[in-house]
Amino acid sequence: MTTTIIWTIAIISGLGLLLALTLYLVAQRFKVVEDPRIELVEKVMPGANCGGCGFAGCHAFADSAVKAPNLDNHFCPVGGNETMKKVAEILGYEIKEKAPMVAVVRCNGTCAARPRTSEYDGSISCKVKASLYAGDTGCSYGCLGCGDCVAACKFGALSMDPETGLPVVDEEKCTACGACVKACPKAIIELRKKGPRGMREFVSCVNKDKGPSVKKACANACIGCGICQKTCTHDAITLENNVAYIDFEKCKLCRECEAMCPTGAIHGVNFPKPLDKEAVKARILERQKKAREAAAAAAEAAKVVKVKKEESNG
Questions:
Q1: The CATH number, out of the four listed (3.40.50.1100, 3.30.70.2750, 3.30.70.20, 3.10.310.70), of the domain defined by the range 101-269
Q2: Which of 18, 69, 108, 310 is such that its CA lies 20 to 30 A from the CA of 279?
């Protein structure tokens, strides 16, 4: 009996050692040697693993950055330029600094401006709600108000305003990771440049319906009238599918479009002084008057030249 136990223990121990040796040899044969710089890069990353950089997480970003010939296609929105400088220093690369971005909610359909046409009684999820029907107001493009964007934000930068029923962005906490952009089924959240001293101008509407039906659905909506586009002297505004859009790369923050918008769909943020719409409109009218006078003078001059030319030829 004792001999049997001893032999059993010996065989099991020997088998264990043999399997351990086999596993060790296989591990050595197929082991992947990771570049030590990957760990160094990952250590300087914020560790949010938010996916805002376009990779699965900070480790995946570090792995890709180490293997890339440069950092042109790599940027960590959470760590920003400071983190990217550290990454570039580790890898011996140069980087181009990027302007800070912030999430912007392009819907101003408050509870007061966008009356309800139905009541939703289902799962509190914008994604689920959007898959079931257009929404519980007359606007099928606006915010659904269930807060998927708030749940997606890992930095506490978003909250729902109970009075307006719309999400509010805390720009001090926003890292521009883009999680809220991906979470919104209506695509009303956009990443835009923060702008100098946080000042920015944007159209707070994405409704693509035509003016009369849009106005009926929401008092604050863009009606696609094109006044803002005609007013802008910087070619920063385009009108497509009945809704205006301001290109933040071209916008000079003159606020003329905001003053001229008949529905208040254009919003200016963080400007030091309140917008004096009447003063801006007077400035625009004066400029337009001078432009008409200059055009008339040019036409008259051209007419005189033409007459003189005809006289000389006759």
A1: 3.30.70.20
A2: 108
What is the reported pLDDT for 135? 87
The pair of structure tokens assigned to 304 is 């005189």
Structure tokens given for 122:
């289902």
What does the pLDDT read at residue 32?
66
- pLDDT at res. 1: 59
| Angle separating helix axes 58-67 and 80-91, nearest 10 degrees | 40
Place of tokens 């963080």: 270
Please name every residue paired with 192 in a beta bridge, in sequence order, or none if there are none. Answer: 102
pLDDT at 39: 92
Q: Which residues of the chain have pLDDT under 70?
A: 1, 31-33, 314
Q: Where in the chain is the domain with CATH 1.10.15?
A: 36-91
Question: How far is 40 from 11, CA to CA, in rounded Å?
Answer: 45
| Whole-number pLDDT of residue 314 | 60
Alpha-carbon span 126 to 280, nearest angstrom? 39
CB 262 within 8 A of CB 223: yes
